[in-house]
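Lab notebook, design round three. We kept the backbone fixed and only want residue identities now. Task for the bench partner: fill in a sequence for the structure below.
Input C-alpha coordinates:
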Protein backbone atom coordinates (compact mmCIF):
# COMPACT_ATOMS: atom_id res chain seq x y z
CA UNK A 1 0.00 0.00 0.00
CA UNK A 2 2.80 2.45 0.91
CA UNK A 3 4.63 1.77 -2.36
CA UNK A 4 1.49 2.55 -4.36
CA UNK A 5 0.89 5.75 -2.39
CA UNK A 6 4.49 6.83 -2.97
CA UNK A 7 4.17 6.11 -6.68
CA UNK A 8 1.03 8.21 -6.89
CA UNK A 9 2.63 11.06 -4.94
CA UNK A 10 5.63 10.94 -7.29
CA UNK A 11 3.44 10.82 -10.40
CA UNK A 12 1.29 13.72 -9.24
CA UNK A 13 4.35 15.79 -8.30
CA UNK A 14 5.74 15.28 -11.80
CA UNK A 15 2.45 16.42 -13.33
CA UNK A 16 2.31 19.50 -11.12
CA UNK A 17 5.86 20.42 -12.10
CA UNK A 18 4.96 20.16 -15.79
CA UNK A 19 1.81 22.19 -15.26
CA UNK A 20 3.64 24.86 -13.31
CA UNK A 21 6.71 25.24 -15.52
CA UNK A 22 5.74 24.31 -19.06
CA UNK A 23 4.33 26.83 -21.52
CA UNK A 24 2.95 24.02 -23.70
CA UNK A 25 -0.38 22.26 -23.28
CA UNK A 26 0.04 20.25 -20.04
CA UNK A 27 -2.48 17.64 -21.17
CA UNK A 28 -0.29 16.83 -24.18
CA UNK A 29 3.01 16.83 -22.28
CA UNK A 30 4.99 13.65 -21.74
CA UNK A 31 5.27 13.17 -18.01
CA UNK A 32 8.21 11.43 -16.39
CA UNK A 33 8.32 11.65 -12.62
CA UNK A 34 10.99 8.99 -12.15
CA UNK A 35 13.68 11.55 -11.34
CA UNK A 36 11.77 13.06 -8.43
CA UNK A 37 12.36 11.82 -4.93
CA UNK A 38 9.55 10.00 -3.18
CA UNK A 39 7.92 11.53 -0.14
CA UNK A 40 8.96 9.71 3.03
CA UNK A 41 6.38 7.05 3.83
CA UNK A 42 6.58 7.94 7.52
CA UNK A 43 5.63 11.59 6.94
CA UNK A 44 1.94 12.18 7.74
CA UNK A 45 0.22 13.98 4.92
CA UNK A 46 -1.31 17.29 6.00
CA UNK A 47 -2.62 18.47 2.66
CA UNK A 48 -1.87 21.66 0.71
CA UNK A 49 -1.48 24.92 2.63
CA UNK A 50 -4.78 26.08 4.07
CA UNK A 51 -6.64 22.85 3.30
CA UNK A 52 -7.90 21.06 6.39
CA UNK A 53 -7.69 17.28 6.45
CA UNK A 54 -10.37 16.01 8.83
CA UNK A 55 -9.94 12.92 11.00
CA UNK A 56 -10.98 9.91 8.94
CA UNK A 57 -14.14 8.00 9.79
CA UNK A 58 -15.28 4.39 9.50
CA UNK A 59 -18.73 3.65 8.11
CA UNK A 60 -20.36 0.36 7.16
CA UNK A 61 -22.69 -0.29 4.23
CA UNK A 62 -25.83 -2.34 4.71
CA UNK A 63 -25.09 -6.04 4.30
CA UNK A 64 -21.32 -5.59 4.51
CA UNK A 65 -19.05 -7.34 6.99
CA UNK A 66 -16.36 -4.66 6.96
CA UNK A 67 -16.04 -0.88 7.25
CA UNK A 68 -15.01 1.70 4.67
CA UNK A 69 -12.65 4.55 5.51
CA UNK A 70 -14.09 8.01 4.81
CA UNK A 71 -11.47 10.72 4.25
CA UNK A 72 -12.47 14.38 4.07
CA UNK A 73 -10.61 17.51 2.94
CA UNK A 74 -12.09 20.98 3.46
CA UNK A 75 -11.05 23.86 1.17
CA UNK A 76 -8.93 26.73 2.43
CA UNK A 77 -11.80 29.21 2.70
CA UNK A 78 -14.15 26.82 4.51
CA UNK A 79 -13.56 28.24 7.99
CA UNK A 80 -13.81 31.82 6.74
CA UNK A 81 -17.19 31.67 5.05
CA UNK A 82 -20.67 30.24 5.49
CA UNK A 83 -20.75 28.96 1.91
CA UNK A 84 -21.87 25.49 0.88
CA UNK A 85 -19.31 23.76 -1.32
CA UNK A 86 -19.61 21.28 -4.18
CA UNK A 87 -18.26 17.83 -3.40
CA UNK A 88 -15.83 15.61 -5.27
CA UNK A 89 -16.37 11.94 -4.37
CA UNK A 90 -13.32 9.75 -4.90
CA UNK A 91 -13.34 5.96 -5.02
CA UNK A 92 -10.27 3.95 -3.97
CA UNK A 93 -9.60 6.52 -1.28
CA UNK A 94 -6.39 4.82 -0.14
CA UNK A 95 -4.88 5.56 -3.55
CA UNK A 96 -6.54 8.70 -4.88
CA UNK A 97 -7.44 10.95 -1.94
CA UNK A 98 -4.15 12.84 -1.88
CA UNK A 99 -3.86 13.34 -5.67
CA UNK A 100 -7.49 14.48 -5.84
CA UNK A 101 -7.03 17.08 -3.09
CA UNK A 102 -3.90 18.40 -4.78
CA UNK A 103 -5.60 18.61 -8.17
CA UNK A 104 -8.58 20.50 -6.83
CA UNK A 105 -6.45 22.87 -4.75
CA UNK A 106 -3.45 23.47 -7.00
CA UNK A 107 -3.64 22.65 -10.67
CA UNK A 108 -6.88 24.25 -11.84
CA UNK A 109 -7.71 26.92 -9.29
CA UNK A 110 -8.66 29.32 -12.07
CA UNK A 111 -11.05 26.83 -13.65
CA UNK A 112 -12.66 25.12 -10.67
CA UNK A 113 -14.58 26.22 -7.62
CA UNK A 114 -13.28 25.25 -4.22
CA UNK A 115 -14.56 21.81 -3.33
CA UNK A 116 -14.90 19.44 -0.44
CA UNK A 117 -13.11 16.20 -1.33
CA UNK A 118 -14.51 12.98 0.14
CA UNK A 119 -12.72 9.70 -0.52
CA UNK A 120 -14.09 6.25 0.28
CA UNK A 121 -12.10 3.03 0.33
CA UNK A 122 -10.42 0.32 2.35
CA UNK A 123 -8.82 1.57 5.59
CA UNK A 124 -5.07 1.16 6.22
CA UNK A 125 -5.62 -1.71 8.64
CA UNK A 126 -7.24 -3.70 5.80
CA UNK A 127 -4.50 -3.04 3.25
CA UNK A 128 -4.13 -6.76 2.55
CA UNK A 129 -7.76 -6.91 1.44
CA UNK A 130 -7.84 -3.76 -0.70
CA UNK A 131 -7.81 -5.64 -4.00
CA UNK A 132 -10.54 -8.11 -3.13
CA UNK A 133 -12.73 -5.50 -1.44
CA UNK A 134 -12.62 -3.15 -4.42
CA UNK A 135 -13.49 -6.03 -6.76
CA UNK A 136 -16.64 -6.49 -4.70
CA UNK A 137 -17.48 -2.79 -4.37
CA UNK A 138 -17.12 -2.01 -8.06
CA UNK A 139 -18.75 -5.03 -9.75
CA UNK A 140 -22.49 -4.98 -10.57
CA UNK A 141 -23.16 -8.74 -10.39
CA UNK A 142 -21.72 -11.81 -8.71
CA UNK A 143 -19.59 -12.78 -11.69
CA UNK A 144 -16.01 -11.94 -12.48
CA UNK A 145 -14.09 -10.04 -15.14
CA UNK A 146 -14.34 -12.76 -17.78
CA UNK A 147 -15.74 -12.08 -21.25
CA UNK A 148 -16.43 -14.20 -24.32
CA UNK A 149 -15.78 -13.73 -28.01
CA UNK A 150 -12.66 -12.76 -29.94
CA UNK A 151 -9.61 -12.46 -27.72
CA UNK A 152 -11.27 -13.94 -24.66
CA UNK A 153 -8.85 -16.85 -24.26
CA UNK A 154 -5.63 -14.79 -24.28
CA UNK A 155 -7.45 -12.32 -22.04
CA UNK A 156 -8.14 -15.07 -19.51
CA UNK A 157 -4.45 -16.05 -19.50
CA UNK A 158 -3.40 -12.40 -19.24
CA UNK A 159 -5.67 -11.76 -16.27
CA UNK A 160 -4.33 -14.85 -14.51
CA UNK A 161 -0.78 -13.53 -14.88
CA UNK A 162 -1.84 -10.15 -13.49
CA UNK A 163 -3.60 -11.72 -10.50
CA UNK A 164 -0.63 -13.96 -9.75
CA UNK A 165 1.63 -10.90 -9.75
CA UNK A 166 -0.47 -8.34 -7.93
CA UNK A 167 -3.03 -10.24 -5.87
CA UNK A 168 -2.46 -9.52 -2.19
CA UNK A 169 -3.28 -11.94 0.60
CA UNK A 170 -6.63 -11.88 2.29
CA UNK A 171 -10.05 -13.14 1.29
CA UNK A 172 -13.46 -11.54 1.43
CA UNK A 173 -15.79 -12.91 4.09
CA UNK A 174 -18.46 -13.22 1.37
CA UNK A 175 -18.65 -13.27 -2.45
CA UNK A 176 -15.89 -11.46 -4.30
CA UNK A 177 -18.20 -9.75 -6.77
CA UNK A 178 -21.57 -8.03 -6.96
CA UNK A 179 -21.33 -5.17 -4.47
CA UNK A 180 -21.84 -2.19 -6.82
CA UNK A 181 -25.59 -1.74 -6.17
CA UNK A 182 -25.07 -1.73 -2.40
CA UNK A 183 -21.94 0.42 -2.63
CA UNK A 184 -23.68 3.05 -4.77
CA UNK A 185 -26.61 3.12 -2.37
CA UNK A 186 -24.14 3.45 0.52
CA UNK A 187 -22.48 6.51 -1.03
CA UNK A 188 -25.71 8.28 -1.89
CA UNK A 189 -28.07 7.30 0.92
CA UNK A 190 -25.76 6.70 3.89
CA UNK A 191 -22.45 8.54 3.59
CA UNK A 192 -23.75 11.67 1.89
CA UNK A 193 -26.56 12.52 4.37
CA UNK A 194 -24.35 11.62 7.35
CA UNK A 195 -21.61 14.02 6.27
CA UNK A 196 -24.11 16.68 5.21
CA UNK A 197 -25.14 16.95 8.85
CA UNK A 198 -21.59 17.98 9.77
CA UNK A 199 -20.36 19.87 6.71
CA UNK A 200 -21.73 22.53 4.38
CA UNK A 201 -22.14 20.41 1.27
CA UNK A 202 -23.88 21.88 -1.76
CA UNK A 203 -26.21 19.71 -3.81
CA UNK A 204 -23.54 19.39 -6.50
CA UNK A 205 -21.70 16.09 -6.48
CA UNK A 206 -19.01 14.74 -8.81
CA UNK A 207 -17.98 11.07 -8.82
CA UNK A 208 -14.45 10.00 -9.83
CA UNK A 209 -13.22 6.46 -10.30
CA UNK A 210 -10.28 4.92 -12.12
CA UNK A 211 -9.69 1.43 -13.53
CA UNK A 212 -12.15 -0.82 -11.67
CA UNK A 213 -13.34 2.42 -10.05
CA UNK A 214 -13.93 3.75 -13.58
CA UNK A 215 -16.05 0.67 -14.25
CA UNK A 216 -18.08 1.52 -11.13
CA UNK A 217 -18.34 5.16 -12.25
CA UNK A 218 -19.85 3.97 -15.54
CA UNK A 219 -22.21 1.65 -13.68
CA UNK A 220 -23.28 4.54 -11.44
CA UNK A 221 -24.47 6.87 -14.21
CA UNK A 222 -26.27 4.01 -15.97
CA UNK A 223 -27.93 2.79 -12.77
CA UNK A 224 -28.73 6.16 -11.14
CA UNK A 225 -27.99 9.05 -13.53
CA UNK A 226 -29.28 11.57 -11.00
CA UNK A 227 -27.16 10.15 -8.18
CA UNK A 228 -24.34 12.58 -9.02
CA UNK A 229 -24.21 15.73 -11.11
CA UNK A 230 -20.97 14.86 -12.90
CA UNK A 231 -19.06 11.64 -13.59
CA UNK A 232 -15.32 11.39 -14.30
CA UNK A 233 -14.59 7.80 -15.35
CA UNK A 234 -10.94 6.89 -15.91
CA UNK A 235 -9.73 3.78 -17.80
CA UNK A 236 -12.84 1.68 -17.17
CA UNK A 237 -12.71 -2.01 -18.03
CA UNK A 238 -16.14 -2.39 -19.61
CA UNK A 239 -15.85 -5.97 -20.82
CA UNK A 240 -16.43 -6.94 -17.19
CA UNK A 241 -18.94 -9.72 -16.59
CA UNK A 242 -19.12 -10.55 -20.30
CA UNK A 243 -20.14 -6.99 -21.26
CA UNK A 244 -22.67 -6.53 -18.44
CA UNK A 245 -22.51 -2.73 -18.59
CA UNK A 246 -23.22 -2.76 -22.33
CA UNK A 247 -26.33 -4.81 -21.55
CA UNK A 248 -27.27 -2.27 -18.89
CA UNK A 249 -26.85 0.55 -21.38
CA UNK A 250 -28.96 -1.26 -23.98
CA UNK A 251 -31.72 -1.94 -21.45
CA UNK A 252 -31.67 1.71 -20.38
CA UNK A 253 -31.90 2.89 -24.00
CA UNK A 254 -34.94 0.70 -24.65
CA UNK A 255 -36.86 2.27 -21.78
CA UNK A 256 -35.63 5.89 -21.73
CA UNK A 257 -35.50 8.71 -24.24
CA UNK A 258 -33.02 10.81 -22.28
CA UNK A 259 -29.98 10.43 -20.03
CA UNK A 260 -29.44 13.58 -18.00
CA UNK A 261 -25.79 13.30 -16.97
CA UNK A 262 -22.45 15.02 -17.47
CA UNK A 263 -19.89 12.31 -18.24
CA UNK A 264 -16.15 12.45 -18.97
CA UNK A 265 -14.22 9.34 -20.09
CA UNK A 266 -10.42 9.40 -20.10
CA UNK A 267 -7.78 6.78 -20.88
CA UNK A 268 -4.08 6.65 -21.75
CA UNK A 269 -3.03 5.85 -25.31
CA UNK A 270 -0.21 3.60 -24.07
CA UNK A 271 -2.76 1.42 -22.30
CA UNK A 272 -3.53 -0.12 -25.71
CA UNK A 273 -0.26 -2.03 -25.72
CA UNK A 274 0.38 -2.30 -21.98
CA UNK A 275 0.83 -5.63 -20.21
CA UNK A 276 -2.77 -5.73 -19.03
CA UNK A 277 -4.41 -4.44 -22.23
CA UNK A 278 -5.59 -7.91 -23.27
CA UNK A 279 -7.17 -8.97 -19.99
CA UNK A 280 -8.62 -5.54 -19.29
CA UNK A 281 -9.15 -3.76 -22.64
CA UNK A 282 -9.46 -0.25 -21.23
CA UNK A 283 -9.17 1.79 -24.42
CA UNK A 284 -11.33 -0.26 -26.77
CA UNK A 285 -14.17 -0.88 -24.32
CA UNK A 286 -14.26 2.75 -23.16
CA UNK A 287 -14.31 4.20 -26.65
CA UNK A 288 -16.98 1.71 -27.75
CA UNK A 289 -19.21 2.70 -24.84
CA UNK A 290 -18.74 6.39 -25.69
CA UNK A 291 -19.63 5.70 -29.33
CA UNK A 292 -22.82 3.87 -28.36
CA UNK A 293 -23.88 6.57 -25.91
CA UNK A 294 -23.26 9.21 -28.57
CA UNK A 295 -25.39 7.29 -31.05
CA UNK A 296 -28.40 7.44 -28.70
CA UNK A 297 -28.68 11.22 -29.20
CA UNK A 298 -29.86 11.79 -25.65
CA UNK A 299 -30.85 15.49 -25.46
CA UNK A 300 -29.49 16.05 -21.93
CA UNK A 301 -26.34 13.90 -22.04
CA UNK A 302 -23.13 15.94 -21.99
CA UNK A 303 -20.55 13.38 -23.08
CA UNK A 304 -16.78 13.78 -23.44
CA UNK A 305 -14.14 11.15 -24.17
CA UNK A 306 -10.39 11.66 -24.54
CA UNK A 307 -7.39 9.40 -25.17
CA UNK A 308 -4.22 10.96 -23.76
CA UNK A 309 -1.20 10.54 -26.09
CA UNK A 310 1.56 8.35 -24.72
CA UNK A 311 0.11 7.97 -21.22
CA UNK A 312 0.04 4.72 -19.27
CA UNK A 313 -2.45 3.44 -16.72
CA UNK A 314 -1.51 5.22 -13.46
CA UNK A 315 -0.55 8.64 -14.90
CA UNK A 316 -3.71 8.65 -17.00
CA UNK A 317 -5.79 8.60 -13.81
CA UNK A 318 -4.40 11.92 -12.61
CA UNK A 319 -4.71 13.46 -16.05
CA UNK A 320 -8.27 12.16 -16.43
CA UNK A 321 -9.35 13.70 -13.13
CA UNK A 322 -7.72 17.03 -13.84
CA UNK A 323 -8.97 17.24 -17.41
CA UNK A 324 -12.40 15.83 -16.58
CA UNK A 325 -13.04 18.36 -13.84
CA UNK A 326 -11.98 21.22 -16.09
CA UNK A 327 -14.21 20.08 -18.97
CA UNK A 328 -17.28 19.29 -16.87
CA UNK A 329 -17.00 22.50 -14.85
CA UNK A 330 -16.45 24.73 -17.85
CA UNK A 331 -18.91 27.58 -17.60
CA UNK A 332 -20.07 26.47 -14.14
CA UNK A 333 -17.10 27.38 -11.96
CA UNK A 334 -18.28 30.95 -11.52
CA UNK A 335 -21.55 29.76 -10.07
CA UNK A 336 -19.79 28.48 -6.95
CA UNK A 337 -17.95 31.05 -4.85
CA UNK A 338 -14.25 30.50 -4.27
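Proposed sequence:
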Amino acid sequence: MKSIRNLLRTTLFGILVVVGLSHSDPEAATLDASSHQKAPATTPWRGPPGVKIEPSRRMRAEGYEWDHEIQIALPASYAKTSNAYPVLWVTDGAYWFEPAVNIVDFTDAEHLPEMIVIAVGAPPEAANETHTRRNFDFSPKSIGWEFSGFGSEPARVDRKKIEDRFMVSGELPAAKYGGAPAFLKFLIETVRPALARDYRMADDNTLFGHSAGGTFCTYAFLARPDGFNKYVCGSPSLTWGDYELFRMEDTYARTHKDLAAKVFFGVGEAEILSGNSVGYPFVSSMTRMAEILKSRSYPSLQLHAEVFPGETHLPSAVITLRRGLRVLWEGDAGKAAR
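Keep this in mind before ordering anything: The domain at 41-331 is CATH 3.40.50.1820 (Rossmann fold).
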